[in-house]
Amino acid sequence: MKSFLFAISCALLVFAGQAADLTGHWVASISLPHGQTRETSLWLKADGDLLTGYMSNNQGDIAISHGKISGNEISFEIIRDYFGEERKAEYTGTVTDEGLVLHMPAAGGRGGGRDLTFKHVSNELPKPLPPPPPKIQLPPAKDVPYNGLAKTPPMGWNSWNKFRNKVSDELVRQVADGMIRNGMKDAGYIYVNIDDTWEGTRDEQGNIRPNEKFPDMKALADYLHSKGLKLGIYSSPGPKTCAGYEGSFKHEEQDAKTFAAWGVDYLKYDWCSATQVYDYHSMPAVYAMMGEALLHSGRPIVYSLCQYGVFHGPQWAAKAGGNLWRTTGDISDNWNSMSHIGFDLQLDLAQYAGPGHWNDPDMLEIGNGGMTDTEYHTHMSLWSLLAAPLLAGNDLRDVPSNILEILTNKEVIAIDQDPLGKQAKRVAKDGDLEVWARPLANGGYAAGLFNRGPATAKVTARWSDIGLTGKAQVHDVWAHADRGVMADQFSADVPSHGVVLIRLKPEGK
Ligand code: GLA
User: Fold this and answer.
1) CA–CA separation, 203 vs 208, rounded Å?
2) Given pLDDT bands bounded at 50, 70 and 90, which one contains residue 36?
3) Closest ligand 1 atom to the C-alpha of 242?
4) Measuring CA to CA, which of 49, 115, 148, 212 is 20 to 30 A from 302?
5) What is the pTM for the complete model shown?
6) Domains in the chain and their CATH numbers?
């Protein structure tokens, strides 16, 4: 029946030289494991060259604006309220023999940058959008006591950046074996974190089950533990995760207990569809609910908040029981994304970091191929200065030696893991040139001389900017070389997009 309708609609739509009639209900469906699907609908009304209607998906219904039709081409905008801020995404589409091929905007969330094909399923006109359902408002939460974990920023691996929905039990075991073989584990990378797309359905008692990619989560945890590694998992406070899988909404305590029973050591809890059910002003209380549940789960579980730093996240995340919290949207494997997140979006956050509680500028992209080695050195240096969690996001089964050298440099990792736990601040900026510095537990300092510009440039770190008095011995961390005792500053030629990372030992200390 569907294909009959589709054939008719195609015949009607792609009639040479005529504007396509777009009116009706269009559906794009993506299959997920366990017979789950992720559907996006477009309800459209064409009126001359004007297009109106709305889009529906697991994030709710949202009206389209400025919709236009020109022959077989369409365009429209979707304007969202992003935690009190207006966010606009522009869509374009073409009516083809296959259906309506919509180009999803790169900044527009799931599937961004990709084409999604919608099939015409009926001529039904869009109904007026119902008023949005009332959202849950929770009373303010009591502070969740500190769980005693993550005294230094967590280190490990996460499946998302490289593998997206391709993560499986088999892959996780192979990655773990790789981490032991290639020295990542010895360098301190301990957590092996499964991100989104492991989730199956719930049983009759409401217990969450993994999908067929993970036949036995407990056995997987046992395997990792037997190798001295730890298991991390992922869920959402909403009904669905960002990728459209089962979330923990109304099952918080039950899921925390299930995770503990499986032997999970780390939970990343990603806001996503929680927007549909909760008033976002309740976000601290929503996160505290899982924070409490983990505390009473019977197992020490590191708690990683993923709410992109919205609604002043860093200010309350530790009180909700968080050991780490994302400070930005998702990182991508390119210079603009990494440098914008690492430099521009981490200003003024140092005050919230300390042993047990860390700002998280997102997982590493080192080794994923979208940046040069110079840029990956900057990525690693900056994250270490920021006392950021170091969660490798590349394929650790087979790592080229140049990438392994960046990820496992002991001196750089020692800066990240310094027990004082003080996150670096930007202490100087001159156009594209920046100096970031942090004090270390031994009375010394670590500083990064960064060049964000297009050509090699001389960068100077001044002791007065760093807060250091007297002379200091300078050690170049990546070069493994001492640079002598300097009276009041140190200068270096830094390549475009590069860094010179130094450790400073004040004389007499
Ligand atoms: C969000 C998070 C990512 C990843 C995906 C999974 O976008 O910010 O880190 O967990 O969801 O769907």
Assistant:
1) 7
2) confident
3) 12
4) 212
5) 0.90
6) 2-122 (2.40.128), 155-421 (3.20.20.70), 426-506 (2.60.40.1180)
As given in the structure block, the two tokens for residue 441 are 């537990």
61 noted as active-site residue: no
Going by alpha carbons, the residue nearest to atom 11 of ligand 1 is 242
Spatial distance between the Cα atoms of 494 and 85, rounded to a whole number of angstroms: 38
Q: Ligand 1 centroid to 21 CA: how many Å? A: 36
Bridge partner list, 78: 64, 89
What integer pLDDT is reported at residue 12 of this predicted model?
47
From 270, 333, 362, 418, the catalytic residue: 270
Instruction: For ligand 1, atom 8, name the residue with the nearest CA.
Output: 330
pLDDT digits over 449-465, tens only? 999 999 999 999 999 99
The pLDDT value recorded for residue 456 is: 98
Residue 116: HSE in the Cβ half-sphere, 13 Å Cα cutoff: 21
Per the annotation, the verdict on 330 as an active-site residue is yes
Residues 158-176 pLDDT 10s: 999 999 999 999 999 999 9
The answer to whether the CB of 195 is under 6 A from ligand 1 is: yes
Q: Is the CB of 306 under 6 A from ligand 1?
A: yes
Q: Check pocket membership of 270 for ligand 1, CB cut-off 6 A.
A: yes
pLDDT in tens, 8-28: 444 444 444 455 689 999 999
Q: Which helix (H) or strand (E) holds 37?
A: strand 37-47
How far is ligand 1, taken at its centre, from the CA of residue 277, in Å? 19
- For β-strands 73-82 and 60-70, DSSP reports them as antiparallel
Query: Quick one: which atom of ligand 1 is closest to the CA of 234?
Result: 10
SS3 assignment, position 301: coil
